[in-house]
């Protein structure tokens, strides 16, 4: 193919000289020369350069992954931020209001390092948060206010305690939605709260591989805790080796939440 280009280029040159036309000859000549040079260069290019080019085009096809950390800030947050920085990774932190009040400097750090901040409520108690639409709304509004006081950011991104199924019924969703909140669940559950050492990383990778086959963007639920921080670099190494690009959740990112189907019910009618 490359030889063919070279041959055509040279033929053009011959035709050009044999049949001069209105077209500016110098311009034509330089175009033909460029074509010929490109063909020659490609021909003589060593294999390693070719593979570099391939890698480059693969990089463009990077896949998105969302890392999310709940329940912070905690004493592990700074370490998580350091590790994310080492891997040039970004994440989203769904934070609890009392924890934000306790460590406002850490909350500021999260924002300064370029991560997204969302809300996780006040009590983290099923019996309180899901007691009524008003209770859920009040918890999220209070968290929003505190975050804004600390960082100046008004976040509408929320994750409800333990996820939106089963207690976040349609009427809860409506109230939150009417107040501008966007519910975010997950499609990769790390179970990092129950697994020890690096077990959660294997759990996450297994789920990512499955989603990758289905071409679904992974949204990973993790927790802002020491054991998660201790093994986070293993997960981030896997992600970068498999061409995943971490992204933070933006206010206008289309939210992902569990669908109720027939599974949701009011907490108060549970008994
Ligand atoms: Zn939580």
TrEMBL record:
<protein>
    <submittedName>
        <fullName>Polysaccharide deacetylase family protein</fullName>
    </submittedName>
</protein>
<dbReference type="InterPro" id="IPR002509">
    <property type="entry name" value="NODB_dom"/>
</dbReference>
<dbReference type="Pfam" id="PF01522">
    <property type="entry name" value="Polysacc_deac_1"/>
</dbReference>
<dbReference type="InterPro" id="IPR050248">
    <property type="entry name" value="Polysacc_deacetylase_ArnD"/>
</dbReference>
<feature type="domain" description="NodB homology">
    <location>
        <begin position="63"/>
        <end position="247"/>
    </location>
</feature>
<dbReference type="InterPro" id="IPR011330">
    <property type="entry name" value="Glyco_hydro/deAcase_b/a-brl"/>
</dbReference>
